[in-house]
Amino acid sequence: MSAMGLLRRIRAELSTGENLELYTTVLLALTLAALGMFDVVGDKVLVAATLATLALLAIGSLGSRRRVEDLTELVRAHKAGEPSATEFFAKDKPNLREQVRDARDIRILGVTLSRTIRNIVDELQHSARSGGMIKVALIDPTTDAPAQAAARSTISAPPGVFENRLRPTIDLLIELARTPGAEGRVEVRFLPFVPAFGLVLLDAQRSGGRIHVDVYSHKSAGGDAVFTLAPHRDGEWYPHFEAEFERVWEAGRPAEASDGFPASAATAT
Prior knowledge:
The chain folds into 2 domains: 3-82, no CATH class; 90-266, 2-Layer Sandwich (Endonuclease, Chain A). 51% of the residues lie in helices and 14% in strands. It has 9 helices and 7 strands; from the N terminus they run H-H-H-H-H-E-H-E-H-H-E-E-E-E-H-E. Helix 6 (114-129) links the parallel strand 1 (105-109) and strand 2.
């Protein structure tokens, strides 16, 4: 490293407080050496100052040792396949809008999907117009699924509450299925039961695919935990959840004209 590069590094580390104890020790050592060389102070002062410098150096090494131990423990946990829950779970799906906008194969599973569909309906329309295929599965308002959802809800809600939550989602899906240029690219199915988890599959059969999984809570207002799977990283669990969507999809009934959908939204593939 050049002298200028070394000076820039020192300046940067001092500005952030990094390795401050090391630079302090070096400065004290140089000062003691100069004082001793020119007989500015006596031996007792030099000895005391030297001991103080050594103590400072020891304190700095203890901090460095602790950081190394923490890093070693983190690496050991990852090698043992034991990442912390905060590393694995999230409270939302990162960059979902951008991912949906760029995807060509989109499959979504949930209860009412009121927030999910509302938040990404523009991106879904863009994908459908651009040649993307979209499948959406949610609970059937004509069955007892809304009552099941109410029993699991954080409040004592009658089934009508979940039917009301479904209506805006269904209206958005009808509008999506009728989008000019998206004919035949949007399929919707209704489930006679409440799914155990939510799924958003984006280009799941491609190497860059992603599967977002919502772990639904029971009578909890704290929000659901979310984790994301990648095909090159998560082994058997990636195809597991991909197959789970297909199994749930097969159990649903296709949306019909009586639900307000065009015939293309009910096409079974």
